[in-house]
Design goal:
This protein has six helices and three strands. It starts with a helix and ends with a strand. The longest helix is centred in the middle third of the chain and has 27 residues. By secondary structure, it is mainly alpha-helical. It has one domain. A three-stranded antiparallel sheet has the order 1-2-3, with no helix packed on it. Helix 1 crosses helix 3, helix 1 packs across helix 5 and helix 3 runs antiparallel to helix 4.
């Protein structure tokens, strides 16, 4: 098993985890899960789905790297960049499509796949590069991102990317229109 092969598998592993994490809050509604998994069908809440899937898969990746003795550097930085860039890439591609066509399932999956593909390529090169010593900043960045998710879940701005059209609400069953 090589680093490249693991990163190729990771794209599909993360994609499968996105399907699972999409429903976790509905299956186990609680305050902790509301921070890590989508609480409604808004565009923003789905960023949590992608972020948590990347984070969960990265734990598995870590053990695969150890099992197959794959040398890598900047693992935590790689995870942080995967998470951050996946949000940016997804929103840049998806928002124009969403604006003109609305939510189209096959397009949503395609954009999700493209985003995960792109961030795994970036991750591959970060893992292969020399050590950048940004682990602490990366951990802080991941923690801050989840703090932001928590705040925006319970106090979302009244903006269309935070609005759940299916339930006609913002946030977590609090701000109904």
């Amino acid at each position: 098993m090589t680093l490249k092969r693991i990163k190729m598998i990771s794209i599909f592993g993360m994609l499968i985890l996105c399907f699972l994490t999409h429903f976790l809050y509905n299956w186990f509604p609680n305050a902790l899960f509301s921070i890590f998994f989508p609480v409604n069908e808004s565009v923003w809440e789905h960023m949590k789905m992608m972020t948590s899937s990347i984070l969960i898969w990265s734990v598995l990746e870590y053990f695969l790297f150890k099992k197959y003795k794959i040398n890598n550097n900047n693992f935590i930085l790689s995870v942080f960049l995967e998470i951050s860039l996946s949000i940016i890439v997804f929103l840049i591609i998806y928002l124009p499509i969403y604006h003109f066509l609305g939510s189209v399932f096959i397009l949503n999956l395609t954009v999700l796949f493209i985003s995960l593909y792109f961030v795994n390529i970036i991750s591959y090169y970060i893992l292969k590069s020399s050590s950048l010593h940004k682990e602490v900043l990366s951990v802080i960045g991941i923690i801050l991102l989840y703090i932001i998710y928590g705040i925006l879940t319970y106090k979302p701005p009244f903006n269309y990317i935070f609005f759940d059209k299916l339930e006609n609400k913002y946030g977590i069953n609090i701000y109904e229109v």
